[in-house]
Amino acid sequence: MPAVDSAAQLSNLQQTYTVIPRVRPDTPLLDSIAAPADLNTLTTAQLITLADELRLFLLYSAGQSGGHFGANLGVVELTIALHYLLDTPQDQIVWDVGHQAYAHKVLTGRRDQLATIRSKDGLTAFPERAESVYDTFGVGHSSTSISAGLGMSLALRYQGRAQTVACIIGDGAMTGGMAFEAMNDAVQQDADLLVILNDNDMSISCSIGGFSRHLAMLWESGYQVDISDTGEPVLCQRLICKALIAVSVIKKCAMCRS
Ligand SMILES: Cc1ncc(C[n+]2csc(CCOP(=O)(O)OP(=O)(O)O)c2C)c(N)n1
C-alpha cells in the first residue's frame, strides 16, 4: 500500500463531521467500489478521500436506521487497509463482536442495503455467513475471533492453502479469557495467523483493568510494534489507521508485505 508519511499528515487530510446527514451524501469514489478488488485501482489520495466518504456514508446510513456508530467510525481506515491488502474472500477477515463490520459490509457489495439494518428482512447488524461470502464467522458474542480464526487457519494449513486469516479484536474483547486461550493455542500450533488489536481505549464504557493499563503504558512509551516478514518485531512508522493498532502476529504480517 502506498505509504502516508505520518499519522499527523493523515489526520490533517481527514474531515471532521459535526452533523448526521439527512439526505444521501455524494460519495462518488465509494459508489465506484462494487467489491474489495476495486480498491486496488485507487491512489493513496483517493483512498484517503474514500475513507472520508465512507465515514460520511456511515453517518448517514446509521443515522437513518440506528445501530452502532462509534465502533464503526473508528475502523474505517483499518477496513479499507485490510480489504486493500488482503485478497478477500480467499483471505479471511474475522471481526470480533462484529458490531464494527458496517464498513466491511459497505465495501463488500452491501452499500445500498446498509440502511436496512434493524428492519425486517434487512441486513444483520453483525457478520453473518448466510448473508455474504465475505462474512467468515457469525458473531455477536465478544472474544471469539482469535479462536475462530485459529480454526480457519489450521483448516487452511491442512488443505495446503496459503491464504491469510486476519482477526480484528478490540481492547475490550481482548480481556475475555477465550481470547487468551486462543492466543496460547495459536503459538502452540505455530499457526499462521494475523491478529490486529484495535486499542481505542473504549469498550461498552471506558476500558478498565490491568490489560487496559498495560496497553496505556505501551502507547505512552511512544513506540509502535510492527512485525517483519521474518516474524521479528520492528519499530514502524507506517501507521495507516486512525485507530491505534498494535499488530501482534505469529509469523506473517500481511500489512508489512507492501
Ligand atoms: C460474551 C459477550 N459479553 C459481552 C458482550 C457485550 N459487548 C458488546 S461490544 C463489547 C465490548 C466492545 O469493546 P471492544 O472490544 O474494545 O470493541 P470496540 O467497540 O471498542 O471496537 C461488549 C463487552 C458481548 N457482545 N459478548
Give a quick summary of the entry.
The protein has 258 residues and is of the alpha/beta class. The protein is built from nine helices and six strands.
Hetero compounds:
thiamine diphosphate
Output the structural class.
alpha/beta
Q: What are the low-pLDDT stretches, counting only 5+ consecutive residues below 50?
A: 233-258
Rough outline = globular
Write the element-wise H/E pattern from the N-terminal end onward: HHHHHEHHEHEHEEE
Residues in β-strands, percent: 5-15%
Q: Name the helicity range.
A: 25-40%
Can you characterise this structure?
- By secondary structure, this protein is of the alpha/beta class.
- The chain is about 35% helix and about 10% strand.
- It is built from nine helices and six strands.
- The strands form two sheets. A four-stranded mixed beta sheet has the order 1-2-3-6, with helices on one face.
- Helix 7 runs parallel beside helix 8.
- The C terminus is likely disordered.
